[in-house]
Amino acid sequence: MATAGKVIKCRAAVAWEPTAPLKMEEIEVAPPQEGEIRIKVVATGVCHTDLYHLFEGKDKRGFPSVLGHEGAGVVESVGPGVTDFKPGDKVIPLFLSQCGECKFCKSPKTNLCDRNWSSKYYDIMSDPITRFTCRGRPILQFMGTSTFSEYTVINQIAVGKIDDDAPLDRVCLLSCGISTGYGAAVNTAGVTPGSVCAVFGLGAVGLAAVMGCKNAGASRIFAVDINEEKFEKAKVFGATEFLNPKAYNKPISEVLAEMTNGGVDFSLECVGNTEVMRTALESCVKGWGVSVLVGWTDVKDFSARPIQLISGKTWKGSLFGGFKSKDSVPNLVCDYMSGKIKLDEFITHKMSLEQVNDAVNLMKTGQCIRCILNISK
Ligand SMILES: [Zn+2]
Ligand SMILES: [Zn+2]
C-alpha cells in the first residue's frame, strides 16, 4: 500500500472534553510500531460505554480522545514482528486483548488479559500509548481502539482476524455489546436447558442476553424493562414473557417469585444500575439461582442483604461475556454467518461519521438499539 510506513492524515471525531459534542477533525495517525497493526476502519457501532466515558465517568485525564470501540475494518499495514496479519485482512479491533502468554490468558477460568490497557489505565478508560495527534497534541485511544476514526493503530494482541466474506457493517457489533450480553448468558451464567431466566434491561446487551438464554435452551425468558416499546424486539430474540416494573405496586422480584414458584434460575442485569443489580439478585430462586452483572458502571457501590448469598444464590459478573477475545470473535462471526446468532435485528439506524453526535443523542435518549456509523468504503 502506498501509505505504508507514512503518517496518514484522516478524519476522526475527537472528544476534546467531557460532556461536549464530539468534533470532526483531521488527525495524524502514525505508522504501526513493533507488533502493531494499522487498520482502516470501515464501520463501527456506538455503544453505551462511549457515552459513559463522555457523560458519566467524565474523568478529565481520559481526554482528549477518540471514542468508539465497536468497529471492524481492513488491515492497511503492519509493523515489524507482525506475522499473523497482512494488508487487506478483515479484522475486528478488540477492547480486551488476548496476549496468550500472561497468567490470565493461560487460565481457562478468565478472559482478562494482563497486557490489556485496562490493567494500567482502567481509571481513564483509555490507552495513553497512542499513535494519534491532532493540532500538535497527542489524542488518547479510548479503550485502546478508537474506531470513530478512519484509521487506527492497535497492538496485534487486541485484533481478531475474521472471515473474508464477513459484512463489516454488521459483524462490528461482535466487538462489544452483542458478545457481552450473549456470553454473559452462555458462558458466565451458564444457562441450562429448560431453565427459567430473567433479563433486566432491553438495550442491545440485554437483547443479546435474551438470545443467549434462548440458544442455551431456556424454557421461559422474562424480559424486564420500563420501556414497553422494547418488548416487541425482545420477542424477536426469544423472550417469552414481558414485565414492566412500573406496572406493579410491589417489587418486581416478588412478582417474578410468584410467577415462577420462588424465583428464576438465572437473572442478568444489563442496565448498569446498582439498584437493578440488587433486584436481579433478589429475583433469583434460593438454593441455586445465579445472577450476573453485565451492565457497566463504576461510579456507585452496590448493596444486598447477606442472606441472599447465604441462601445459596451466586452473584457474579463478566467482561466481554467471558469470551477470550482473539479466539472467540472470529468464531462468533462464523456463528452469525451460519445463522446461529442474529445481528441484523439489532441495527435500527445507519449514519455517517459526520453524524456521530446525532447517533450519540439517539443512544442517550434510548431511541435506538444500535446505530452503525459508516466510516469509510
Ligand atoms: Zn461497548
Ligand atoms: Zn494475556
UniProtKB/TrEMBL annotation:
<dbReference type="GO" id="GO:0008270">
    <property type="term" value="F:zinc ion binding"/>
</dbReference>
<keyword id="KW-0479">Metal-binding</keyword>
<keyword id="KW-0862">Zinc</keyword>
<dbReference type="InterPro" id="IPR002328">
    <property type="entry name" value="ADH_Zn_CS"/>
</dbReference>
<dbReference type="Pfam" id="PF00107">
    <property type="entry name" value="ADH_zinc_N"/>
</dbReference>
<dbReference type="InterPro" id="IPR011032">
    <property type="entry name" value="GroES-like_sf"/>
</dbReference>
<dbReference type="GO" id="GO:0051903">
    <property type="term" value="F:S-(hydroxymethyl)glutathione dehydrogenase [NAD(P)+] activity"/>
</dbReference>
<comment type="similarity">
    <text>Belongs to the zinc-containing alcohol dehydrogenase family.</text>
</comment>
<dbReference type="InterPro" id="IPR013154">
    <property type="entry name" value="ADH-like_N"/>
</dbReference>
<protein>
    <submittedName>
        <fullName>Alcohol dehydrogenase</fullName>
        <ecNumber>1.1.1.1</ecNumber>
    </submittedName>
</protein>
<dbReference type="InterPro" id="IPR036291">
    <property type="entry name" value="NAD(P)-bd_dom_sf"/>
</dbReference>
<keyword id="KW-0520">NAD</keyword>
<feature type="domain" description="Enoyl reductase (ER)">
    <location>
        <begin position="17"/>
        <end position="373"/>
    </location>
</feature>
<dbReference type="InterPro" id="IPR020843">
    <property type="entry name" value="ER"/>
</dbReference>
<dbReference type="GO" id="GO:0004022">
    <property type="term" value="F:alcohol dehydrogenase (NAD+) activity"/>
</dbReference>
<dbReference type="Pfam" id="PF08240">
    <property type="entry name" value="ADH_N"/>
</dbReference>
<dbReference type="GO" id="GO:0005829">
    <property type="term" value="C:cytosol"/>
</dbReference>
<keyword id="KW-0560">Oxidoreductase</keyword>
<dbReference type="InterPro" id="IPR013149">
    <property type="entry name" value="ADH-like_C"/>
</dbReference>
<dbReference type="GO" id="GO:0046294">
    <property type="term" value="P:formaldehyde catabolic process"/>
</dbReference>
